[in-house]
Each structure stands twice: as C-alpha cells, then as structure tokens.
C-alpha cells in the first residue's frame, strides 16, 4: 500500500527525490572530495538557486549546518554577548530560549499560551537586548506569525538583530529577507528531503556582530562560528566534510521548485490549507487548536480531536495516511497535519475523506 | 567507465551501499518520525551492532553527531575546564588543538614534524592537564600511532581523560576501548558511507566530567552536551532530528561487516597495505612519506612522487582510479591512497598496475 506521510517533519519526500537519489548514487556524489571543483559547483549552485527561489539578497550568506537545532545554537553563540529576547508560544520557540540559557546567556522570554499569537503592539523590547528571536511557524502548535509584525521590530530597533525560525514554513512563507538578519530552517519539512541538513542565512550585520564578539575574545564556537563558515563559504566550501548527498539533493529539489514556480507552490499550499481547515471547522469530531484564523498556520495544521487522537491516527495508518501526534502534553489530544509542497491536492483530499469516515 | 575512489574520505562507498540506499527509499526510512518506535529500533540496533563489531564496553555511550570535527568541539566543551594536551603531527591533530583554543581553553601542544611519530617515553604530561588527545591515524600524512603507547598514558594518568581520533583507522584499528575514554570517527572513511554523520563514544568517566563542569555552571554546549546526548540516547533517540538515513545505512553496513568478520577485514587491510608499500618502496618514482615503518598507516598510505603528484593523479583519473592529493603544503608533492574495507584486493592491484606504467 502506498503511504502518505503528513507528519510535520520528517515528512513526505518531494516526488522527485527518489530519482535524484538514484542519480546521486550513479554519479558517485558521495565519493567526490568536498575540497574539489565538483563539490564547489554543487555548493555554489545550491546557494544561487536558493537565493533565487526565496529572493534572498545577494549580500546575505548561506551556511550548511546539520539541523535547525544547531542553527539556534550557532546564532546565540555568534550574535549574543548576553541578552536575547524570545517570543515563546510553543516547544520550538521555547527551545531557542533554552539554548540561550544553556549557553550561559541571560535570555528574556515573552511567553503566551500555546496555540496563541502575540499582541506585538503591547510589547517593548528592553534597550540592552541584542537579538530578537521569532518562530515564524510553531511546529508544535500550528501558530504562524504575520511577517509584517516581524518587520516592525527591525524598524523600531534597527540596531538589534532579528532572527526568524522558518523551519516549517519554508518555502511557503514570503519573507522579505532584507528586513531581518538571521533565518534558518531544516530540509526535512517544506523541501521534502531526508533529515540531516540545516540551512542558516545571515545578513552582513549579523556577521559584523560575530566579528565584534570575536574581537572581544569571547567564545563564538569553533568550526561553525560565522567567521569560519564565511571563510569557507567564500570558497564554496564548508569547514568540515558536510552532508554532500543532502546538499546535492537540495539543489535538485530547489531547481524542481523553480520550474514549478514559487507562486504556484504558495497558491497550492493555500488551497490545501483551506480544504483542511474547512473540513476541521465543520466537522463535529474536530476543532482547530488555533482559534484565531489570522494566526493559523497554512503549513502545520493542528486540530483537537474530540475522542482523542490515538484512535484516529491508528485508523488512518491502516489506510496509508500517517499524520502527526500532538506535541508534548497534547500528544493524545491533537493531530498535526503537514501541508508541504510534497503533499498533492489529491492526497489532501484523500486524507480528508479518511478523516470524515 | 567504472570509477575506483581511493581518496582518503569521502571515499569508495561500501559495495552494499547502493542496495541499502534503494531499500531506505522503498521503506520510507527518511519519512519516519525520529520520535517513533521504528527509529528507536534503528538507533538501538546501530549502537548494539557497533559495540559488537568494535568490542566497545556495554557501559560506554554512543552518540550520533554530524561530523568528526563537531566531535572535537563537543569533547573540548564537555571534558575541559581549561587544559587539554594535544599530540600534533599533522593537520587533523592540529585542528583538535585549534578547536580547544577557539573555545577559549588553554591547550598544550606537543608538535613533531609532519610525517613523524612521537617519542612518547620522553614526554611528561603536566599535572593540571584534564584531557590528553591522540590522533590515532593522521589522515593528512599517513602516520599511525601504536595503540599500546596510548594505553600507557591511561595507566600513568588514570585521573586524566584520554581522547582518541580514529577517523581514518576505524574499523581496522583494534582498540581496547576500556583503556581510553573518548573515541570518535566519521562514517565516510572506513565505513564507506556518504558523509554527514559523526560517531562519538564516551566512557562513564567522561560523562562524569561533563556533569562536573555543568555543576560548576560552565558552558558545555546546548543540544549536544554529553548530558543532553545521554538523556536522549537512553531513549534510543537524539536531541534533534538526526540524519536518520545515514544511521540506517550505518546499521546495515556494520551488519555486513559482522558477516564478513572483523578479523577478515583487518587481515585484508594488512594484505592490501603490504602490496601498496611494497610497490612504493621498490619503485624509483615513489617514496613513502612516513619513513619509519612502525608508524606507517595501514589505512591512509601517503607517498612522495618524484615528478610531483598532479600529473600522475590526472593520468590515474583517465583510467578510473581517483587517489588523493597531498594535504595542505604537500598538495602537489604527495599522493594519498585510502585502504578501507570498501577497497578490494583486486582494485588495489589494478591501482598498482596503473601506478607502475
């Protein structure tokens, strides 16, 4: 039986992935040297294509890390001497805060109930804050922020850095990269790749902060400090032997997406989200966890299940549809449905049919 | 034309890899949840098989990181308050030292000329040193240490921790893990996997050191501190979404190696190394870089090339044989030939034939 993975990451692989994996094996991609010309070309093509797809400014740097979690750590190490500020409304925004704390910084957190957005107008950022951290799309609860709210902070606080986690909203989110400084994601969600690669994008201003901390003789990490990452990125290389296989696959999937067109991908995502929310809003057995429609995620759709989620998850598995548990304390109460580019309208309709039986 | 990668990493893939990759795709390994039962079983099987293959004590912990370079960073973060000691005879032992320095520790280095071993009897380790770092097999130059020399340090300094880099000698090196504390490698060399996974093995004593530093409120990192890694490893999980694909492949290749038998793998490595050194020692165009036979690596064979290495590297490529450049300043002077389990005796003989023309 064909399986459809609607889990919010790892998730359904992009439809072309198995072809690209086959080619990677045939072309010996995993045996080439990470210091040779062939790899450098793969690195450059991947960065160039990503910048084209997401409309990232030329002056921004793109780094390859191992996970979004690592990205959080490297951001704190390289951009925070002491004070970061975190908008927390779920497990992943909380994790970003906790990582800052683990690294012996003194982070601030502004926390609201999980499943809620923020009343940003009511919040003033203390003067000493160096970095403001947003989780654009909370994978744990399915709350998505309005990007315009994020931009306002850059205008209000031009000397502070802005970091945005787009782990589960990329490539859907139409972000104006020039209005933020640090952006990161992993590839096993919206790009439909196997897990094991994180992507970190930084502005020249973020790099300057890293250099400032280094000049003060502070610990900004070793091989994955922004300074080391830039040194190698300028040669189209990484400091260590990277996950060449995944970088190759990412290049190929981005090029597939460029052919489809980012606008079509976004339009399709909207259509599928509308179908799912319409069903959940109108079916007595379900209730979208995020009540306020303006902050409902289009890419991770979370619903309460009246009879509890475990029974329906098991029932769906028998039909070949795999959806996510609720996160943490919501494990047995919620289902989470990923709505990524790899998910076709047809498979979403198939899922809805099964949910409604 | 079939290609034979004798580069010292990334290198030739293990012969069964393409079959395992195909299965990974067919079984949706890259879509399964890293918090689910299926992944936990893969994690457990991989750790159990690795312990069996390498004879690692039950009480030791096995962690999955992204690279050996990351392993160096995590070891310094978790085992060194201030003072580490590094035996340096090439680029990778040097890197370990530099990482300690980057992390604002005060590392000591004992450096000899590249291509040489150490006169260990002449070296006393200062009292304040917390961690002694050995690079068992210097990938940059092809020097291999005698493991008995390493064990002596544990006997002389039982309260210091001993770290051993076996990046390019695993699984060949027959190490008594119970006489050292921290061991690490990456999978794109002796295991013949695609790059993007590092493996770190630690003793209970190393974990204690990490806890001691944490209790002093020192920065031991965040998601990849030993404490976090152990918390998740005890649940057969990793703190972040890991490279599930690579962990799956590692399990499969280890099981293939268990079937072949580690003794056969080691015997074959010896046979191939003997063939290569015999040729290089007896051919006027070549001269093994490591003069002293007792410290010549069996797994990374480095040779000076009288007429320079670039011409012969190009000639070999035309015949389908890819060997490594010299490292760093030796780029145009040396060739480096990997001798890993993926390299058959027949392909080594084929390489020698081409070298001798």
Please provide a written account of the structure:
- 2 copies of one chain form a homodimer.
- Chain A is globular.
- Chain A is 39% helix and 17% strand.
- Chain A has 2 domains: 4-12 and 261-356, Aspartate Aminotransferase, domain 1, CATH 3.90.1150; 17-258, Aspartate Aminotransferase, domain 2, CATH 3.40.640.
- Chain A is α/β, with parallel strands linked by helices and 357 residues long.
- The model of chain A has no long low-confidence stretch (mean pLDDT 97).
- The relative contact order of chain A is 0.17.
- Chain A has 11 helices and 14 strands.
- In chain A, the strands form 3 sheets. In chain A, strands 2-10-9-8-5-3-4 form a 7-stranded mixed β-sheet, sandwiched between helices. In chain A, strands 1-13-14-12-11 form a 5-stranded mixed β-sheet.
- In chain A, strand 13 (321-325) and strand 14 form a beta hairpin.
- Chains A and B meet through helix 1, helix 3, helix 4 and helix 8 of A and helix 1, helix 3, helix 4 and helix 8 of B.
């Amino acid at each position: 039986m064909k399986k459809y993975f609607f889990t919010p990451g790892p998730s359904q692989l992009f439809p072309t992935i198995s072809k690209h994996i086959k080619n990677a094996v045939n072309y010996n991609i995993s045996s080439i040297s990470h210091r040779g010309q062939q790899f450098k070309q793969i690195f450059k093509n991947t960065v160039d294509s990503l910048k084209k797809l997401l409309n990232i400014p030329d002056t921004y740097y793109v780094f390859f890390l191992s996970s979004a979690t690592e990205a959080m750590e490297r951001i704190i190490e390289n951009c925070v001497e002491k004070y970061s500020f975190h908008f927390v409304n779920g497990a992943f925004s909380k994790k970003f805060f906790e990582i800052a704390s683990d690294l012996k910084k003194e982070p601030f957190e502004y926390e609201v109930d999980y499943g809620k957005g923020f009343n940003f107008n009511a919040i003033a950022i203390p003067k000493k804050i160096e970095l403001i951290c947003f989780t654009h799309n909370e994978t744990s609860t399915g709350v998505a922020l309005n990007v315009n709210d994020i931009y306002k902070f850059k205008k209000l606080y031009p000397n502070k850095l802005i970091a945005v986690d787009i782990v589960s909203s990329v490539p859907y989110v139409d972000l104006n990269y020039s209005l933020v400084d640090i952006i990161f994601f992993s590839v096993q969600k919206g790009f439909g790749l196997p897990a094991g690669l994180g992507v970190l994008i930084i502005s020249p201003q973020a790099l300057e902060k890293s250099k400032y901390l280094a000049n003060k003789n502070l610990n900004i990490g070793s091989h994955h400090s922004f300074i080391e990452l830039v040194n190698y990125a300028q040669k189209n290389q990484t400091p260590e032997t990277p996950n060449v296989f995944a970088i190759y696959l990412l290049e190929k999937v981005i090029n597939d997406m460029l052919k489809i067109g980012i606008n079509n991908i976004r339009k399709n995502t909207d259509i599928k989200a509308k179908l799912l929310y319409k069903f959940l809003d109108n079916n007595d057995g379900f209730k979208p966890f995020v009540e306020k429609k303006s902050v409902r995620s289009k890419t991770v759709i979370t619903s309460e299940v009246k009879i509890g989620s475990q029974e329906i998850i098991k029932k769906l598995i028998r039909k070949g549809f795999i959806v996510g548990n609720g996160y943490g304390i919501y494990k047995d109460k919620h289902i989470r449905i990923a709505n990524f580019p790899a998910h076709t309208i047809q498979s979403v309709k198939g899922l809805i049919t099964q949910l409604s039986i």
